[in-house]
Amino acid sequence: MDIIDVFLHPKSVAVIGASKKHTKGGYRITTNLVTNNYKGKVYLVNPNADGKLYDLEFKKSILDIEGDVDIAIFYVPNRFIPDLLKDCIKKGVKGAIIEASG
């Protein structure tokens, strides 16, 4: 799988900053993935969230995910990006989409 294929046809996506709050980007991207028939695995990452959303369990860190992750989509404040990217590198994530804010 070449890099463009990873972005166009990921087999797994981690939403970093996933949220149960309807106004948050992490909620919207999760909803879009789940309700628009994305066929791959979806993982939710948020150290401050517990429980499940759309029957998907929240993980505290991308390093807590047991399976492979092709793409990480970030919806977090930009000050967290460097450390989260380091975790993604440790995990072996192939690509990242960053929607960071202030």
Automatic annotation (TrEMBL):
Residues 7-102 form the CoA-binding domain. Keywords: ATP-binding, Ligase, Nucleotide-binding. One of its GO terms (molecular function) is ligase activity. The keyword NAD does not apply. InterPro entries: Acyl-CoA_Synth/Transferase, CoA-bd, NAD(P)-bd_dom_sf. Pfam families: CoA_binding_2. This is CoA-binding domain-containing protein. It comes from marine sediment metagenome. The lineage of its organism: unclassified sequences, metagenomes, ecological metagenomes.
